[in-house]
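[INFO] parsing input record for Histone deacetylase
[DEBUG] input buffer:
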Amino acid sequence: MLKIAFDLIYAHPLPEGHRFPMLKYELIPAQLLHEGLITPDNLFSPDELDDATILLTHDADYYKQLAELTLPPKEQRRIGFPLSARLIERERRIAKGTIDGCHYARQYGVAFNVAGGTHHAGTNWGEGFCMLNDQAIAANYLLNNKLATSILIIDLDVHQGNGTAQIFENETRVFTCSMHGANNFPYRKEQSDLDIALSDGVTGEEYLSILKATLSKLIAQQKPDFIFYLSGVDVLATDKLGKLSLTIEECKARDKFVFEQCLQHHIPVQVSMGGGYSPDIKHIVEAHCNTFRLADEMWF
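[DEBUG] output buffer:
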């Protein structure tokens, strides 16, 4: 069964002016339900993640400041909005949804978090609307509970997964791969195990060629027993922040190739949705929904 972490709190805890990008967290499941691709049984609402699991990844002082809403104003500006209890609850639920998704992926092959992809959060910092790094937290959870021994994080958001790279810089059991815009946020990059920095305006044809030349070799080399996939749709030509030139169909082809590799090698995959900032929200929703449609078609 295709299992999808979804909670209305994903869409509604943000200050006015930040809500438009978050509408997709409501619209994606609504569209999939409308199409009949899923039923309410496919959706699950995660609880808040416990502190001990968060502290496997994030620095205790940093997390204490988040939880107590005492993070200095300069650090809050780096995140992009002022802290609130609702925001911290949201982050903890997102992280728990990704962990729950790992269990479902191990059972069914693939699972989704409608939110997630908070890859700019490092061990002791938040940045770019990210405070707790959901896939990093989940990767450490799998390792700590001996549910995985070799993990591959495939980050295809248009922005480098700088927080994820920093968190795992000394962890040989997690291989971080980020394929992103070279001239895009964050302007101070961290070093992933593999960074593929793309020039502005890269076409879908070139993008797919690079991905196909890289990913199958990477899986063969690393032999992961679990994959995290960050499937940001800010690679679209319509994206106001992206600087790349993929069409919706080329974005779909990207997802299809990633899923084919997971299936071919019998590796469970947890998918977090990442970014998408096209001015017309229907482009964002359609591109994200394609990822769900493909998973349903290919696994179920």
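[INFO] DSSP finds ten helices and eight strands in the chain.
[INFO] shutting down worker
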